[in-house]
Amino acid sequence: MESLRFEMIWEMTEKIPRKKVASYGQIAILCGFPRAARLVGWALHACPEERLIALPWHRVVNKEGRLSTTCLDHTKDLQKWLLEKEGVKVKTIHGNFFIDLKKYQWRAGIV
DNA sequence: CTTATGACTTTCA
DNA sequence: CTGAAAGCCATAA
Question: Are the CB atoms for A68 and A38 separated by under 8 Å?
């Protein structure tokens, strides 16, 4: 098995269906690297803007379903907006945004 | 080649 | 139950 590269992460992220979300760890697991959750976050952070635009990065949240992005150019507000645009309900709690994983978590790739 | 970092996750106190 | 710390991996410098 090759090393987990950003490209793999991006491709896996692109496979997330509409109205579904996946955790960073889940993406890593689907790629075959259960402990590379941080790579996923960083991969998206290091992703070119062009690629990022076509990438459903907003469907990737942390394990709690919380929008944990710290990227100044791609804020939680933007992510929330993109999700609601798809019809995904986003809860606003104490200034943070949460997603109902029981309802929206991606259940594919568990072949 | 070595050190530092990041949009995470899990475990210990 | 809540909070803090370590673990993890690939990339950048």
Answer: no
| Span A75-109, pLDDT tens digits | 999 999 999 999 999 999 988 999 999 999 999 76
| Secondary structure (DSSP) of A65-77 | SB-----SSS-HH
Q: The tokens 């890593």 sit on which residue?
A: A28
| One-letter identity of residue A42 | W
Report residue A12 as tokens: 């896996």
Interhelix angle A37-45/A24-31, rounded to 10 degrees, is: 100
CA–CA dist A69, A75 (Å, integer): 6
Taking alpha carbons only, the member of A29, A69, A83 closest to residue A8 is: A29
**Which nucleotides in chain C lie less than 7 Å from some protein C-beta?**
7-12
Which of strand B's nucleotides are less than 7 A from any protein C-beta? 5-10
CA of A58 to C1' of B10 (A): 24
State how far the Cα of A44 lies from the Cα of A13, in Å rounded to an integer. 9
